[in-house]
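queue> pop job 88
queue> type: inverse folding (structure -> sequence)
queue> payload:
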């Protein structure tokens, strides 16, 4: 016969409600008792009934995730890390891929997540009307993109400071012709390109370097876009001796373009990226490292905490650490570089 929660409670010598709290990771149970309950439950072969738990708690045990792209490395990494946290806590993920304006409009008009999820993790930046629509769901909300916003727990980084550290590194090496591969064609309402561009401009200004619009090109946050942008920068009347790419994927595209033009990195042109992509170390890319998976996991943990402790104080904004990682793609400018 299948063991029941009562069987587990009787074997441990606690109440059925204590067993329920322990197995769902809720507070109010000591680590020692929690471990004992888990061991006995495993020994008896007890597993909690999802339908019974839902009826008792009023929860769906499902988290809604809305994303602009799931094929992009950043969003895929955040999604994977958050899903692991949700799954470990016994929750399923209901994913909505809103990669087109039509899909996005349809989602926010119909709000198909209503009464189907216990919380929402947004990997896109909603406008005011979309924010209001999400808040109307009456469930905990979290995001890993953009700045602080009412009703959301935001887990992110200081994009502007990260860009400043990258460009300042190039200035300190002696570069004065510093180009930037931006991501202005990114997801709708995305603030990351704006913040990173401002960091680039701030360091140029504080270093007494005149801004040259000809040294900026849009790479669309893809490898192919980065390659095309680097090619455009090399066609300038005075090409850059160093380039800051707003993402590692665009930086990798830039490296490919430089190799195709038979220019050496960093002897001829230095390149620094942003993210610390899983392949950044493989290609020796100097970059600004951000904990992408860590942001997804932290956002998931904070959502679960809001569900388990609805009356507790919740952080409105959590800023994760970033750091400059020096590798082989940056060096002082060489007179042999493109002039």
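queue> result:
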């Amino acid at each position: 016969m299948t063991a029941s929660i009562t069987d587990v409670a009787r074997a441990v010598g606690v109440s059925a409600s204590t067993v329920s709290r322990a197995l769902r990771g809720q507070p109010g149970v000591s680590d020692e008792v929690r471990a004992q309950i888990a061991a006995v439950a495993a020994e008896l072969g007890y597993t909690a009934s999802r339908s019974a738990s839902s009826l008792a708690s009023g929860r769906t045990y499902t988290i809604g995730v809305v994303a602009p792209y799931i094929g992009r490395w950043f969003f895929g990494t955040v999604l994977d890390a958050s899903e692991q946290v949700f799954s470990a806590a016994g929750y399923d993920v209901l994913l909505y891929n809103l990669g087109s304006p039509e899909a996005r409009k349809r989602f926010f008009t119909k709000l198909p997540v209503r009464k189907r999820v216990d919380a929402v993790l947004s990997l896109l930046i909603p406008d005011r009307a979309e924010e209001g629509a999400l808040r109307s769901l009456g469930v905990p909300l979290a995001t890993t993109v953009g700045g602080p916003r009412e009703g959301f727990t935001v887990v992110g980084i200081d994009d502007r400071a990260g860009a400043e550290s990258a460009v300042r590194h190039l200035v300190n090496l002696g570069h004065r012709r510093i180009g930037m591969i931006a991501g202005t064609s990114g997801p709708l309402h995305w603030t990351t390109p704006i913040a990173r561009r401002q960091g680039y401009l701030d360091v140029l200004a504080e270093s007494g370097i005149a801004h040259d619009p000809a040294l900026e090109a849009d790479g669309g946050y893809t490898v192919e876009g980065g390659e095309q942008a680097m090619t455009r920068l090399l066609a300038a009347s005075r090409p850059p001796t160093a380039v800051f790419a707003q993402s590692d994927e665009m930086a990798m595209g830039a490296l490919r373009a430089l190799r195709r033009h038979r220019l050496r990195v960093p002897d001829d042109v230095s390149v620094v990226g942003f993210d610390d992509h899983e392949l950044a170390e493989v290609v020796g890319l100097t970059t600004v490292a951000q904990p992408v998976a860590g942001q997804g996991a932290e956002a998931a943990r904070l959502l679960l905490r809001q569900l388990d402790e609805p009356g507790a104080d919740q952080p409105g904004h959590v800023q994760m650490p970033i750091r400059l990682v020096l590798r082989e793609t940056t060096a002082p400018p060489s007179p042999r570089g493109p002039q």
